[in-house]
Structures are given as C-alpha cells and as structure tokens.
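Researcher: Sequence recovery benchmark, item below. Answer with residues only.
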C-alpha cells in the first residue's frame, strides 16, 4: 500500500519558502510518502522530503521505488488511491465504476 500523509507544523521562516508548504487544506505541512507491506504491519519505504504543496503522485514518480519498479529491479504491486495513476505496478480504484463488478472492486479497494 502506498499513500501520502501530511505532517502539520507552524509556518516556516521566510528563508524556507513557506508558500511551498501550504497544502490543499491551507495548512503548513510536510507531505510524507509511506509504503507498507501487504499486511500493513511494516513500512517498506518512507520519504519525508516534500513540502505540503507537492502531490502524492509527484513524490512517487521521483522516488527510488518508482524507478526500481519501472526497471524491474523490484517487483510487486502497490495498492494506491485515485491520486496515483494506474500502471502495471499500481492498483487503483476505477474513476467511474459502472458495472457491479467495478463497484464491488472499488468497495473492497477502499477497505484495504
């Protein structure tokens, strides 16, 4: 499983470009990308280097994990929310589920 989570903090000093740390909820944060194993018991990857204004998919596309999956140095699948593009290594929900099977998939995906 992969997702980004925002760690809130006070407004940074002007030298650190505080506007870059304003997230979509209009608070200052650091966007942290976390990847957990299939059981959710252990983190397998953690990146805490992005300001709050950066989208989850951008964090992933610049990560070593992304490169490793793309070049097949690592194999496997990531369960991701709709903020990530679908790919051979990522399983995301349907944008507009139409059939009962697609709706069921999204319901199960949401609870994962």
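Model:
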């Amino acid at each position: 499983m992969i997702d980004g989570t925002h760690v809130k903090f006070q407004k940074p000093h002007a030298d650190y470009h505080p506007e870059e740390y304003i997230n979509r909820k209009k608070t200052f944060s650091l966007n942290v990308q976390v990847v957990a194993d299939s059981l959710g018991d252990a983190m397998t990857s953690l990146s805490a280097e992005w300001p709050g204004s950066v989208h989850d998919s951008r964090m992933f596309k610049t990560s070593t994990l992304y490169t490793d999956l793309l070049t097949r140095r690592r194999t496997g699948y990531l369960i991701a929310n709709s903020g990530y593009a679908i790919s051979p290594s990522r399983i995301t929900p349907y944008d507009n589920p139409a059939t009962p099977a697609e709706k069921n998939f999204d319901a199960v995906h949401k609870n994962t």
